[in-house]
Amino acid sequence: MARRTAGWLALGFLAMLGGNAYAQGVIMQRNVSLAMARTIAEATIAECKSKGFNTSAAVVDRAGQVLVVLRDEQASPQTVEMSRRKAYTARMFRTSTLDFQKRTAEDPTLTPQRDVSDILALGGGVPILVGNEVIGGVGSSGSSQTQDDACAKAGLAKVTDLLK
């Protein structure tokens, strides 16, 4: 009995040591800066505006939290929420929302992903990547799905040199 108790105590002590050693240290993560988010959003809206569309653009960080939302003065109000949800969807699923839309439509086992809160399976959302690491998302809303996708990609292209 005493051996068994001593064994459990030793095992508990080792678990505490391992947990403490693992918990120490600073975690470094890349994220989208406010200046970068603003540049992406402005370039996204400018691209759509140049094609005759009045849109909104949203940029979220690696946690899916909004950094910037811009709405063209002639864009309809719902475009703000739709652009935010597209950016969030692109960030969370690590793919463009056009790809997400196609993948979840083709595979019925993935369709429930569309029902998750804040997810929007419409084109216009693109993840922000540094290599293979997703650090945010950009969403555009107010034109067609393919045009919104192109505008979001144009906004992202404006900061390509910073994403290395």
Short summary:
The protein contains five helices and four strands. By secondary structure, it is α+β, with helices and mostly antiparallel strands.
Helices and strands in order:
Elements: H1 2-23, H2 34-50, E1 56-61, E2 66-71, H3 78-93, H4 97-106, E3 125-130, E4 133-141, H5 145-157
Antiparallel strand pairs: 1-2, 1-4, 3-4
Helix pairs in contact: 2-5
Structural features, described:
The protein has 164 residues and is an alpha+beta fold. It has one domain (34-162): Haem-degrading domain (Beta-Lactamase, 2-Layer Sandwich). It is 48% helix and 16% strand. The protein has five helices and four strands. It has helices at residues 2-23, 34-50, 78-93, 97-106, 145-157, and strands at residues 56-61, 66-71, 125-130, 133-141. The chain has a four-stranded antiparallel beta sheet with strand order 2-1-4-3. The radius of gyration is 21 Å and the shape is globular. It starts with a helix and ends in a 7-residue tail after the last helix. The model has no long low-confidence stretch (mean pLDDT 91).
Domain count, please report it. 1
Corresponding CATH architecture: 2-Layer Sandwich
- Shape verdict: globular
Give the terminus-to-terminus CA distance: 60 Å
Low-confidence stretches: none
Q: What percentage of amino acids are in beta strands?
A: 15-25%
* Strands, count: 4
Largest beta sheet: what is the strand line-up?
Answer: 2-1-4-3
Number of helices: 5
Integer-rounded radius of gyration: 21 Å
CATH class: Alpha Beta
Elements, N to C (H/E): HHEEHHEEH
Q: Helix amount, in percent?
A: 40-55%
CATH superfamily: Haem-degrading domain
Largest sheet: 4 strands, antiparallel
Mean pLDDT comes to 91
CATH fold-type name: Beta-Lactamase
Structural class: alpha+beta
